[in-house]
């Protein structure tokens, strides 16, 4: 009896151990099956380095088959076929973070996995990877990811290849950079980032093509009038600003935009009015005035309804604002600015005299000029009185009818 009892205990123990062993074996087998794809990818990835993956796989027509990786493809398709790209991103611990994601090992492993699952049409690899990224990241996160990638020389080409399948991402990234730029100090770090993105996306081009493409983006974002005000702001008047302004003028000439319409944009605010000549005639604003006026009438001689620079200004902003501009320029520390102001003030007075306008009439016209309504009654009254007195004094000068052009040395053709 005792022996039979002991034998039963031993058999029960052996049965339990056998059952436990089978359970552990199945569990281990299952885990091995579920992890073999990841492990294989890890092993293969150690051989196929990140730079090689990016350059030899993502950026060329070479497929993983051509690189001798058929076994890993088969392994992934049989073992990991039920794992989605989103699930595999969690396995790789791929997340936004503060790094350039496209240069991170986690992203490369994930993209590698996505490529292996989509081998039927290798030419669509960038499109497929981007689509899978959209399932994981929000549009805002994608903007951050691709901005970082575009600005990194190691991943910029790859970033362009990916976002070419969704131009809206590039559009959002560049517009967000432009929105961060200080308009009054435009050509700083954010501008440099923006230019880098535009030029990377454009590929190899000559400088003129780059400038025209950048100008197109700037015009679409700011509008012509605001862009002109940005480019003519004092701190933005440098070689870069001049480059865009020249290109913009070329576009206007081809579009047959009239000189007075151009000047309405150049002198669009009180700030630009007071500063137009104050900083000297060699700054961008007066250069545009002189140069565009001249080239327009050379290109379109039959359009010469306004023959002088003063006519162009007066048509654009009115006689009262011209008087304000010239008054401000006479207080400039720049000698040439003061000379220009006196020259055009005298030219304005001579035109009034030729029309037979008396001092009283001039005072009334300046005070009632609708283009200075926003300056306030007191300012308009004081301005009109100032212009009346200056005009009266000028009429009494013995050399009033002579217009001395001395010092106007940067091309006043057609004045």
Number of helices: 21
- As residue ranges, the low-confidence spans are 1-48, 64-79, 405-415
Largest sheet: none
- Shape annotation: elongated
Q: Span between N and C termini?
A: 132 Å
**Overall residue-averaged pLDDT value:** 80
Alpha-beta classification = mainly alpha
Helix % is: 55-70%
Strand content: under 5%
H-E string: HHHHHHHHHHHHHHHHHHHHH
Rg estimate, integer Å: 36 Å
Number of strands: 0
Organism: Plasmopara halstedii (Downy mildew of sunflower)
Signal peptide: 1-21
Protein name: RxLR-like protein
Keywords: Signal
Labels describing this entry:
mainly alpha, elongated, RxLR-like protein, signal
Report on the structure:
- Residues 1-21 form the signal peptide.
- The protein contains 21 helices and no strands.
- It is mainly α and 415 residues long.
- Among the domains are: 32-137; 256-415, no CATH class.
- α7 (139-151) packs antiparallel against α8 (156-163) and α7 (139-151) packs across α9 (167-179).
- The N and C termini lie far apart (132 Å).
- The relative contact order is 0.05.
- Residues 1-48, 64-79 and 405-415 have low confidence and may be disordered.
Helices and strands in order:
Layout: H1 2-47, H2 50-58, H3 70-79, H4 85-92, H5 105-117, H6 125-136, H7 139-151, H8 156-163, H9 167-179, H10 189-202, H11 207-222, H12 224-231, H13 239-255, H14 259-266, H15 270-275, H16 284-299, H17 309-317, H18 319-329, H19 335-354, H20 359-367, H21 377-395
Helix pairs in contact: 1-3, 4-5, 7-8, 7-9, 11-12, 13-16, 14-16, 14-17, 17-18, 18-19, 20-21
